[in-house]
Write the structure tokens for this entry.
Amino acid sequence: MSPRRAAPVLDVAHLRIERGRSVILDDVSWRVERGQHWAILGPNGCGKTSLLKALTAYMAPTRGTIDLLGRRFGRADWRELRTHVGLVTAAVQHLIPPAEPAIETVISGKYAQLDRWGTITRADRRGAQRLLRTIGAAALAGREWVLLSQGERQRVLVGRALMARPRLLILDEPCAGLDPVAREHFLQFLDRLARRPGAPTLVLVTHHLEEIMPAFSHVLVLKAGRVVAAGPRRRVLTARILGEAFGARARLALRGGRWQARFTPPRRQVF
């Protein structure tokens, strides 16, 4: 008898989300196996944010199924399942108290609470210090949130997400607002994180091809709420597929294991 195959980290089947007369996602199927790291790519309004909200149970699907770690949305306690998903998003930054030290922000991730009050245990403090060292931010432990740069804040938010030891880590456009140097430092950090033994499965949401680091093995491309392509990076990142997704002629180049793209928009018609 062959050994039982492990359940995928994530299995989305025929997902549809409607709100009023608008179809936000239409027949989206996507499977993430253990050991894979994915990037989600697509133009504005393609449904990336709505897909993330569905995965984290903040937006209920109209039809279709979502399985996380072998358990199905609607049949399992999604509040408990959500503790296995780390989410790094700019949407929480304004909720963090300006005077909160970085180490306390990281600790709050274990309890899924912002502006957490209560006694901090020695074990939590040690765990947070260990994580800050892992992400190269040990020197930030006592620094207040308001004094952190945007790049430093992103690292602290990754540490916060990792504090709960998630199996899946979703990064929603984490490079938005970073200057070119800070962005490159952060991307190199993500690449190292993805390669660490025992790292969670990473899902990176981005608009930019050059942010897909070599450690990201697979890509999901969306357009207008539908899947254009999904699969191994080299098969999906083609001029034809990206041109279809973004509605422009694409030229691709691979340099140092990272793709770059130049798009030529179609000429406007003159009537």
Notes: The two ends are 69 Å apart (CA to CA). The helical segments are 48-55, 78-81, 102-108, 122-134, 150-162, 180-195, 233-236, 239-246.
